[in-house]
Amino acid sequence: MDKTTTLLFTHLFFFTLLLTTSLSKDLCNKDDKITLLKIKKSLNNPYHLASWDPQTDCCSWYCLECGDATVNHHVTSLTIFSGQISGQIPTEVGDLAYLQTLIFRKLSNLTGQIPPTIAKLKNLRFLWLSWTNLTGPVPEFLSQLMELDYLNLSFNDLSGSIPNSLSLLPKLEYIDLSRNKLTGPIPESFGSFKGKVPDLFLSHNQLSGLIPKSLGNLDFNRLDFSRNKLNGDASLLFGANKTTFSIDLSRNMFQFDLTEVKIPKTLGNVDLNHNGITGNIPVQWTEVPLQGFNVSYNKLCGNIPNGGSLQKFDSYSYFHNKCLCGAPLDSCK
Ligand SMILES: *[C@@H]1O[C@H](CO)[C@@H](O)[C@H](O)[C@H]1NC(C)=O
Ligand SMILES: *[C@@H]1O[C@H](CO)[C@@H](O)[C@H](O)[C@H]1NC(C)=O
Ligand SMILES: *[C@@H]1O[C@H](CO)[C@@H](O)[C@H](O)[C@H]1NC(C)=O
Ligand SMILES: *[C@@H]1O[C@H](CO)[C@@H](O)[C@H](O)[C@H]1NC(C)=O
Ligand SMILES: *[C@@H]1O[C@H](CO)[C@@H](O)[C@H](O)[C@H]1NC(C)=O
C-alpha cells in the first residue's frame, strides 16, 4: 500500500470506531437504569412512562435528566407531573443517589407517606411533592438533606406537627407546607435557621398557639401564616429595620395593637383580615409601597390616614372593623 492508501485506511478505521462506539453508547448509568425500571414497575407501568423502554438509552427517556460526564451521566432530575399514576412514591427513588431534583406533582392518586429512602438523596436540592394525596407526617428525616434549597409539600394531606429540625438545613431558601392538615405550633427553632432566613408558607393548616418570640429577630422576605388557628401577638413579625416584602396573617386569632407597630419601608403586601387586631392605622402606613392591603374584619378604630397607597384600596380592604373611618370608608364624624 502506498502512503495515501494507508492514510485513508487509518482514517476509515478510526472513523468507524468512533461511529460504532457513539452509536452503541448507552450514556445512562446501568444501575440507574435498573432502578428506573423498578420505579416504573412499582407505579404499575403507567402510560406516562411509556418512553422508559429498556432497549434505549435511559438518558433519552421522558420525565428525567442525566448529568454530564463529571457525574458519569447519572440521573440528576426526576419529574412526574400530571399523569394517570396510582400508588405510592416508589421507595427505589432513594437509590438514584445523584438526584438533585425530585418532583411528584398533580397526581391525585398518589397516596401513602413520603418514603424514608428519600433521606439517602444527599445531593437533593429541590423537593416538590404537591397536589397529591400524600398522608403521614412532614418527615423528620428531611433534615438529613444538607443540600436542600427548596422544599414544597403543599396541597397534600400531611398531618402532625412541623419538625423542629428543618431549621438545621443550611441551604434552605423556601419552605412551603401550605394546604395540609398540620397541627401544633410553629417550631421555636424557626427563630434560628442555620442558613439564611427562608420564605415561609404555612397557610391553610390547623397550626395553633403563639408565634415564638424567636421569630421576631428574623428578617423574613415573604411569610404566609394565613388560615390557621394561631393567636396572640404577631406584631413581632414587623419591625422598622426589616426588609420584609409580604406578610399574610389573615384568618387567624391574632390580637395586638396596631398603633404601636413599626413597619418595614419595603412592605408590598399585607393581609391581616379576620383577626382581633385593635388600635388604629398609623400614618407610617402611607409611606410604604403597598400593592396589596387588607385589614378587614378586625377591631380597628380611628381615621384611615390619607395618602400613599392607602386610598388605592376599596372599602372591602377596611370594612367590618370597630370604628374605622375616612376614605375609602365613610368620613369620620
Ligand atoms: C384515580 O383513580 C380513580 C379510581 O381508580 C380513577 O377513576 C381515576 O381516573 C384516577 N385518576 C388519575 C388522575 O389517575
Ligand atoms: C384525594 O383523594 C380524594 C378522595 O380520596 C379526592 O376527593 C381528592 O380530590 C384527592 N386530592 C387531590 C389533591 O387530588
Ligand atoms: C408550591 O407549590 C404550589 C403548587 O404546586 C405552588 O402554587 C406554590 O407557589 C409553590 N411554592 C413555592 C414557594 O414555590
Ligand atoms: C434600627 O436601626 C437604627 C439605625 O441603624 C438603630 O439606631 C435602631 O436601634 C434599630 N432599631 C432596632 C429595633 O433594631
Ligand atoms: C379583604 O378581605 C375580605 C375578607 O376576606 C374580603 O371580603 C375582601 O374582598 C378582601 N379585599 C380585597 C381587596 O381583597
From TrEMBL:
Please report the organism this UniProt entry assigns to the protein. Answer: Arabis alpina
The subcellular location is: Cell envelope
List the molecular function annotations (GO) for this entry.
polygalacturonase inhibitor activity
Q: List the PANTHER family.
A: POLYGALACTURONASE INHIBITOR 1 (PTHR48059), POLYGALACTURONASE INHIBITOR 1-RELATED (PTHR48059:SF4)
| Domain annotation Leucine-rich repeat-containing N-terminal plant-type: ranges | 30-66
Record keywords, A-Z: Leucine-rich repeat, Repeat, Signal
Q: What is the first-listed, main subcellular location in coarse terms?
A: other
* PROSITE patterns assigned to the protein according to its UniProt record, in alphabetical order: LRR (PS51450)
- What's the protein name? Leucine-rich repeat-containing N-terminal plant-type domain-containing protein
Entry annotated with the keyword Cytoplasm = no
Family, according to the entry, reads as follows: Belongs to the polygalacturonase-inhibiting protein family.
The parts of the chain that form a coiled coil are none
